[in-house]
Amino acid sequence: MIISKRLAAGVCALLAALAVGFSPTGAAADETDPAQSPKVDLVLDVSGSMRTRDIDGQSRMAAAKQAFNEVLDAVPSDVQLGIRTLGADYPGNDRKTGCKDTAQLYPVGPLDRTEAKTAVATLAPTGWTPIGPALLKAADDLKGGDATRRIVLITDGEDTCAPLDPCEVARSIAAQGTHLVVDTLGLVPDAKIRKQLTCIAEATGGTYSSVQHTDELAGRVTQLVDRAADPVAVPVATEGAAQCTGAPQLKAGLYTDRERFSEHRWYRVDVLPGQELRASVSVGADRAVNQDYGVLLRAVTASGREIVRGEQSGNGRTDVISSGLRYPKAPQDDDDTEPAPETVCLQVSNSFSAPASVKTTPGLPVELTVDLVKAPDAASDVAAFGLGRGWWLLGALVLTGFLAGVLWGWIARWRVAVWRTN
Amino acid sequence: MCTTRVMAAAALAAAALLTTAGPAAADSPSPSPSVSGSSSAPTQAGTSFRTAAVLQQDQPGTADASTGDYLYWVFPADAGQTPTVRATVTLPEAATRHGAATWQVDVYDGLRRRQACTHGSQTRTAAADAASVELKCTLRPVRAWSEPWANDPLPGSYYVRLTVTGLPDEDLGLPVHAEAEATAADAGGAHAVDGTLAAPLVPGTATAATAAAPSDDGWSSGWWTDRWLWTVGGGVLASLAAIGGYALTRGTGRRPVRA
Predict the structure, then answer these.
(1) Which residue, A111, A211, A217, A402, could crosslink B245 as a Cys pair with Cβ 3.0–4.6 Å?
(2) Residue range(s) defining the domain that contains residue B191
(3) What's the confidence (pLDDT) of residue B230?
(4) Is the residue at B239 inside a domain?
């Protein structure tokens, strides 16, 4: 009885694991649909300063062109790639005009390598460095479809078009729920540029690289384009409520939300008897935050009793802080009645804080995964299947066997003796 | 009599072999259908939990990255194993760096709960002139089951996050090369608990693109335990001992009959 039950549980677990492993991977691997193919926009700085000859003895512009040729050759076939320039057209001194100077050099779409290369070859270092407007336009370029989007920004100067802070622009683009990542590459190891570019990258969950050689530039951009092509589950945007009543009803899946400092967000999940709820949450630090922080995920019944919680705190440099919980609900005893789902409220809260100079809106990015696994969860007898192990067990069995053998032998001898005397 | 002795010895030897070889055999790297097309070791790392690169145990994953990136890998660990994660970071040339850098490796379970390291240097500071830094983290033994309120390691996926936690600002963005490997030692029966999880603690349907599963025969915690070998071996030995004991009592009793 125990064995069959446990075998069944094992088979169930295996099947569940396989089902979990197979089905969505198949869906994600389906990349023929144009709406699903990842989009990348390369944003290249063509400002006057790109004339400076400090990368492997050639000008920054020449290095960028050479790198672009290599990158364009290596773009995976399913990636839709576009190229946008900033500061390519207006050579004058009028700041207002110069700060609008961004143009689409090659539209986002299926890539024609020769055409794209020809377009890049025409570029000559010219104007200003309007990073903020270029990011906004690049985000527009990538609109449509629900695949991953990536902007790769290559620049050698800081944005001089205040008051539009490119870092704020990046954060607001990311907060629009378009799931867009900005990776930045700086061609000059300068403190101001680094600060601005790391801020842009941090705000969108991207990366910052400092590039000093042509091959580094080509290698890094190729790596970033390839990364866009990797199949990845795209989260669904949701908005948690301030309390459990009226909170959004979630099914198994991956969700994103935004949560301000010390805000509480509630979600609801229906759990059937015999199901196990598994939820994990990551809260991202997408801006400068104070050094101590934490996250708390609570599963609470509709009446307000806490079932289980996951909590984590940390300090120092981090991208996210995450925690998780699982709640196995006991199977129903009688099979006659319809199984009634229990509403479990999930509360996500964070203890991030930031210096007063840091904007608190939009909130921090929250990633929530909800999973419902069907099967029981219970501890049974400590010995698996009632089996034993170890040298003491062997000794005991051997001793018992030996004694039984001796006893049996004596009985046999005694019986023979009795038989012979009779 | 001689043959039984040989058989007993063989049975014992087989039992001993199988108990040690069992977990080792499960570790051999080979392609798995649920791993997204990565039969060879990954040469890229992910940048978030969702995009973590899938590793098998004993399969080193490499990545070229920029200083300051958060690098993620994910590997499977099953009940009865004590996983150890090793990471080596080859730092940029000392001439381009401006000071010491502190690197850290963190391990999270399939529910993104941070797991404690029982030993190994999880955080290490590389001097300004060091060429590389090595990090190591050994987890607690993975149990087959635990209370939902506990944070014990359970069978499932484990995320590895490698990043720099402290460095001079000037060094952000410099190219580095990182290598990560997960191995596991057999924890043995001392940490065995019974009960099973509903399903291994892999990230669910939502993030299946990065689900890590053992390569060949799936999650073994369903029915296999080395207790089978001990118990069956014990039974065999007991019956041999019984025959021996019986023979001992008969040995002197027969001679007068034949004489």
Answers:
(1) A402
(2) 31-225
(3) 87
(4) no
- Helix (H/G/I), strand (E/B), else coil: A231: coil
Give how far A265 is from chain B: nearest CA, Å: 19
Rounded Cα distance, A180 and A238, in Å: 16
Cβ within 8 Å of residue A12, ≥6 positions away = A374, A375, B198, B199
Query: CB distance B193–A379 less than 8 Å?
Result: yes
In tens, the pLDDT along A259-301 reads 999 999 999 999 998 889 999 999 999 999 999 999 999 999 9
| Sheet with strand B61-66: strands edge to edge | B61-66, B175-186, B81-90, B132-138
Q: Do B137 and B162 contact (CB within 8 A), yes or no?
A: no
Interface of A with B in 314-373 (CB under 8 A): 314, 316-317, 319-320, 322-328, 367, 369-371, 373
Express as a percent the part of chain A with pLDDT over 70.
89
Q: Is residue B205 part of a domain?
A: yes
Nearest CA-CA partner of A69 in A207, A228, A215: A215
pLDDT, one tens digit per residue, over B94-114 is: 998 999 999 999 999 999 999
Q: What is the mean pLDDT of each run of 10 residues along chain B (259 residues)?
A: 41 41 34 45 90 91 94 91 95 91 95 94 94 95 88 92 93 94 81 72 62 67 73 91 88 53
CB within 8 Å: A10 and B238: no
User: pTM (2 decimals)?
Assistant: 0.81
* Amino acid at the residue A31: E
For residue A273, which of A375, A419, A152 has the smallest C-alpha distance? A375
Q: Is residue B244, in this structure, part of any structural domain at all?
A: no
Domain-embedded: residue B236: no
- For residue A5, pLDDT over 70 is answered with no
* Residue A24: pLDDT over 60: no
Q: Is A231 on the interface with B (CB under 8 A)?
A: yes
Residues 6+ apart with CB under 8 A from B70: A319, B47, B48, B161, B162, B163
Please tell me the distance from the alpha carbon of residue B32 to that of residue A236, in angstroms, as a whole number. 28
User: Which residues between 272 and 301 in chain A have a beta carbon less than 8 angstroms from any beta carbon of chain B?
Assistant: 276, 278-282
How many domains, in total, are found in chain B? Answer: 1
Q: Give the span between the Cα atoms of A201 and B74, in whole angstroms.
A: 24
Q: A 122-181 residues with CB below 8 A of B?
A: none
Q: Which domains does chain A have, with CATH numbers?
A: 38-229 (3.40.50.410), 235-332+339-374 (2.60.120.380)
